[in-house]
Amino acid sequence: MKIFTAAQIHELDNYTIEHEPVKSIDLMERAAKALTRAIMDEWTDRTPVVVFAGPGNNGGDALAVARMLAENHYQVSVYLFNIHDKLSEDCAANKERLVYAKKVSHFTEITLNFDPPELTPETLVVDGLFGSGINKPLSGGFASLVRYINQSPAKVVSIDMPSGLMCEDNTYNVRQNIIRADLTLTLQQKKLSMMLTDCQQYLGRLRVLDIRLSPDYIRDTEVSCRIQEETDLIPCVRHRGDFVHKGTMGHALIIAGSYGMSGAAILATRACLRSGAGKVTVHTPKRNYGIMQVAVPEAVLQMDREETYFSDSVESQDYDALAIGPGLGQSENSAIALIGQIRRTQCPIVVDADGLNMLANHQAWMQQLPLGIIMTPHPKEFDRLVGVTSSSDYERLTKARQLAEHLQGYVLLKGHYSALCKPDGHIVFNSTGNSGMATAGSGDVLTGIIAGLLARGYDQATACQLGMYLHGLAGDLAVRDLGKESLIASDIINYLPKAFLRLED
Ligand SMILES: NC(=O)C1=CN([C@@H]2O[C@H](COP(=O)(O)OP(=O)(O)OC[C@H]3O[C@@H](n4cnc5c(N)ncnc54)[C@H](OP(=O)(O)O)[C@@H]3O)[C@@H](O)[C@H]2O)[C@@H](O)CC1
Ligand SMILES: Nc1ncnc2c1ncn2[C@@H]1O[C@H](COP(=O)(O)OP(=O)(O)O)[C@@H](O)[C@H]1O
Ligand SMILES: [K+]
């Protein structure tokens, strides 16, 4: 799914009106029908409904929904906010239709003072104050109303956007003046802010309603952000020829583990093996020899000369991919070995965990990273890497995009919707995965998967996209059998075969 900017959403609206062609009032009617159907799916006609409509087209949608719910025997009270005596054309038209239909039990147009109605736990609030046309944080009477709704026990369904939430950047928004919906019914496409962790509290459950906006515009318009889906990835999956052998299926080198953190090396190595690499070599401190041999008999071991930490870079010309960082520790010796390793490695590299932390501790090294490098930070690791804590997830995403462009590499910012920032400034959000994966070691598994895919011959962008998709899908498949609470990182590895099977079938 493409993610359009607020300006593009407006263009899409106009393009549809012009090219379908359809009158804008009829398009609003179509949207309102879809919204009404979705509300009726969830709440019976015994639910008292209070509709708050703003002066723009979001308010127009809300007024049309109010009329349709009333026609379907709901008790509906409507408050239209027209404090500047200026309604959008379609909002005004829907006001007329509503008044003419005489179906709603109560209609007030607020031009000055407003006494809010009582909102009980049984009430359903339809929030149609502002949608994608919002251009500044809410203040004054609107802010008070939002706070009144938020502190009430009523259930809230937001039309298109929770009112007050911006489509993209909410860094400087006034957070208490944004509606906290129980259900958001967004029209046609998800908006960028809906992919960000710090905006989830406003959305509640999110449903996307197809209102048949121009498929031509949707297909032909360039965007910089998209959400990847299974259909995008299936064509990328490589199939094995019958006559291949382990020597042609790629050789990955994993440099991971230190004293007390052999588990990270084990998880990354197992995940790498399960991702199709022909051979996997693990370079790890001597002390890990016994445990690695037992835990991952399929891997070749290469012992560091040190007992407990990574101390020196190794020859890498025989490898097709390098993963470095999981459980590596952050000693100064290891840091020097890390940068030495990165400098002498010719194949694609993925850096994770302590590898990233050590780069963060040596900012000058950031300039020495090879083109095409892949970094897989979680938000804290990312903040350390760029040296500042971001005050919003939008800001962090923007910095990740800038870093990917600056390094001409790949920054895979992990989260519920992991975001891959590419060297050309494009961002791909992942759509698989679940909160059961919020457990130690899940990230090591992702690193191993990406390394395996790189070794197998996928280019960096595909390895990252397919890797994060398979990682999340394996987690989703595991959760079906095991539940979220008990899921551990090893389960993700155990369900990787099923995830591959699903994409291959
Ligand atoms: N996209 C589509 O394809 C379709 C879209 N549809 C619907 O249209 C919605 C977008 O409608 P929209 O463009 O009229 O904007 P909307 O959100 O109603 O707000 C604009 C009004 O709010 C005002 N205003 C802004 N910020 C403010 C603030 N902080 N505080 C106070 N006022 C503020 C602004 O005034 P201004 O500042 O510009 O004078 C203007 O009056 C969209 O979300 C969806 O529901 C569907 O009907 C059909 C298909
Ligand atoms: N709530 C969640 N929803 C979806 N994916 C999640 C969630 N929590 C964690 N994950 C995934 O699990 C992995 C966690 O990585 P990370 O924090 O580096 O873990 P660790 O350092 O313990 O290995 C990431 O790939 C992330 O996308
Ligand atoms: K709204």
TrEMBL record:
Residues 9-219 form the YjeF N-terminal domain. InterPro entries: Carbohydrate_kinase_pred_CS, CARKD, Nnr, Ribokinase-like, YjeF_N_dom, YjeF_N_dom_sf. GO terms for biological process: metabolite repair; nicotinamide nucleotide metabolic process. K(+) binds at residues 58, 127, 163. Its EC number is 4.2.1.136, 5.1.99.6. Pfam families: Carb_kinase, YjeF_N. CDD domains: YXKO-related. (6S)-NADPHX binds at residues 57-61, 131-137, 160, 264, 327, 378, 444. Keywords: ATP-binding, Isomerase, Lyase, Metal-binding, Multifunctional enzyme, NAD, NADP, Nucleotide-binding, Potassium. PROSITE patterns: YJEF_C_2 (PS01050), YJEF_C_3 (PS51383), YJEF_N (PS51385). Catalyzes the dehydration of the S-form of NAD(P)HX at the expense of ADP, which is converted to AMP. Together with NAD(P)HX epimerase, which catalyzes the epimerization of the S- and R-forms, the enzyme allows the repair of both epimers of NAD(P)HX, a damaged form of NAD(P)H that is a result of enzymatic or heat-dependent hydration. This is Bifunctional NAD(P)H-hydrate repair enzyme. The lineage of its organism: Bacteria, Pseudomonadati, Bacteroidota, Bacteroidia, Bacteroidales. The gene is nnrD.
